[in-house]
Design goal:
The protein contains nine helices and ten strands. It is of the alpha/beta class. The chain has one domain: P-loop containing nucleotide triphosphate hydrolases (Rossmann fold, 3-Layer(aba) Sandwich).
Length: 245
């Protein structure tokens, strides 16, 4: 049965109102989020992913409250959710292999190290990364390579829902192509993917649905192609700003 993620009347306020009475049901598609507060999109994604608890409302995964479930069966719930951070996320005191194994070992302790290394090697090859960097510390690698490693670490556990915070930021052209190819593959597999992107419109064009937020409240949602034809000032303003990036 296809997994579903549901936001039910979610409120979250930091310095500004980031989510206001937000409700939406996410199925096995690729979703983009566009907001008039783009600098806060990271926190919006983190609330939906269960990394930041909202002030009010519920995030339901398979009908269960994500935050309540984390307390009762954290491993089973977190195993289903992956998050690719905009930057950082790799532990500086561990080498690349050790970083990749942290969530892998946590969620799949029963899988042998040799099998894990085999899967890691396959994903390294997919991104065009040499396996020799597995013994390096993250600080010695380019930012683009570090970004690719964040994708590898997330995908290793095969989550049912993946969040991307500016997935193309600081990426080389080759890494970007590999990321795009992976996202397209997961889209075909009906994995729920939710992203916010500030440097490239291409992913919004690929998305099944683009969700517009106005001051944290749901405004509308449709394909990017349809939204580009809108005459509403709010919509045209968001689209124009994105296209100008």
């Amino acid at each position: 049965m296809m997994q579903k993620l549901e936001a039910n009347k979610v409120f979250y306020k930091k310095e500004t109102q980031l989510l206001k009475d937000f409700s939406f049901s996410f199925g096995g598609q690729l979703y983009g989020i566009l907001s008039d507060q783009p600098e806060e999109n990271s926190n919006v994604l983190k609330v939906l992913a269960g990394l930041i608890q909202p002030d009010k409302g519920k995030i339901l995964l398979g009908g269960e409250n994500v935050y309540t479930s984390f307390q009762k069966k954290e491993r089973a719930v977190r195993k289903q959710i992956g998050f690719v951070f905009q930057h950082g996320g790799l532990l500086s005191n561990l080498n690349v292999l050790e970083n990749l194994l942290v969530p892998y070992d946590f969620h799949f302790p029963e899988i042998s190290l040799d099998r894990k290394k085999e899967k890691i090697s396959g994903l390294m090859d997919f991104f065009g990364l040499p396996v020799k960097i597995l013994t390096e510390r993250p600080a010695k690698l380019t930012i683009s390579t570090q970004k690719a490693l964040l994708f590898i670490r997330t995908y290793l556990t095969e989550p049912k829902i993946i969040f991307y915070d500016d997935p193309f930021m600081n990426c080389s052209l080759e890494i970007k192509k590999s990321i795009f190819k992976l996202i397209l593959k997961l889209k075909e597999e009906k994995i729920i993917q939710i992203f916010s992107e500030s440097v490239d419109v291409q992913l919004y064009e690929l998305a099944d649905m683009v969700i517009l937020l106005q001051q944290g409240a749901y405004y509308s949602s449709d394909t990017f192609k349809v939204l580009k034809k809108s005459n509403a000032d709010f919509v045209t303003g968001l689209i124009s700003k994105l296209l100008a990036e």
